[in-house]
Amino acid sequence: MKKNRNGFTLIELIVAIGILAVLLTIAFFSFSQYSRYSRDSVRITDLKSVKTALELYEIDAGKYPRPDNSKEVTFNFNTVVWDQ
After folding, report:
1. How many whole angstroms separate alpha carbon 21 and alpha carbon 12?
2. Where are the domains of the chain?
C-alpha cells in the first residue's frame, strides 16, 4: 500500500524555521553594525566641517572665536532665530 506524501513533516518545518531564524539573526546584527559605521562616518564628516569653519573664521578674523562670543539660537518649528 502506497502512502500519499503531500506536504512536509513536522521535523522538516522545524528545521526550516530554525535555519530561517539563524539567518535573520545574522542579518539583523550585520545591519545594526553597518548603521553604526554609517553614523560614525557622518559624525567624522560633521567634525571636519566644523574644523574647516573654525579655520576659515581664524583666517578672516585673525583669531579663533572665544566661548564668550556665543550667540543665542532659538528654534521655532522650521524657523531659526539668531539673537546677538
Report:
1. 14
2. 10-83
